[in-house]
């Protein structure tokens, strides 16, 4: 069981990090964006509910990977910034097994293993990563991470939150961090991520 959980979690994180790595050099050049005001977006077989004043970056998103930014960052036509400035990413993996992602203790061990830390690092260097804490909750396992490797989202994203969960039967990783120079405090980051995950679960019963 532990071996399967380790491989499953590391594999899901690799999907998430590979998608983020492909954005290097792509931001903040935003073109061909959809700012139609839709409150939902499809990511693979799932729907996500966009926070108020946030829009999908359709030029960076892929079939099973989504980037959501403040609408103000995507268009000069939008006047106001949201009350918190952040970036959300959502990665949808394969169908989860019936027992979900497994025990929190096994997931934590997998994340702190050399393979897990390598997968977490945007640069693939486990020394760039520090797992600051892990908080298992009923809806998701939340992980606070510090990654000193290069990010396309700005230095405000160095410390960020990730949620590992099962949504609509699919394995999912959702992340949130500060955008540009703007930091998200630890409690604010957890709060907005919990709200994002809850809305996603409600939209995909």
UniProtKB/TrEMBL annotation:
Top-level taxon of the source organism: Bacteria
Name of the protein this chain belongs to: Uncharacterized protein
Source species: Nereida ignava
């Amino acid at each position: 069981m532990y071996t399967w959980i380790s491989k499953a979690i590391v594999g899901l994180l690799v999907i998430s990090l590979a998608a983020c790595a492909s954005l290097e050099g792509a931001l903040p050049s935003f073109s061909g964006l959809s700012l139609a005001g839709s409150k939902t977006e499809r990511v693979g077989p799932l729907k996500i509910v966009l926070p108020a004043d946030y829009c999908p970056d359709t030029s960076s998103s892929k079939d099973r990977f989504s980037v959501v930014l403040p609408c103000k960052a995507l268009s000069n036509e939008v006047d106001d910034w949201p009350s918190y400035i952040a970036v959300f990413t959502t990665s949808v993996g394969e169908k989860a097994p019936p027992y979900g992602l497994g025990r929190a203790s096994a997931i934590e061990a997998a994340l702190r293993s050399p393979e897990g830390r390598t997968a977490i690092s945007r640069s693939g260097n486990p020394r760039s990563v520090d797992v600051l804490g892990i908080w298992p909750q009923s809806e998701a396992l939340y992980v606070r991470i510090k990654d000193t490797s290069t990010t396309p989202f700005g230095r405000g994203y160095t410390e960020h939150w990730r949620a590992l969960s099962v949504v609509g039967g699919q394995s999912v990783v959702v992340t949130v961090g500060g955008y540009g120079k703007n930091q998200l405090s630890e409690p604010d980051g957890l709060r907005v991520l919990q709200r994002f995950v809850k809305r996603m679960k409600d939209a995909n019963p």
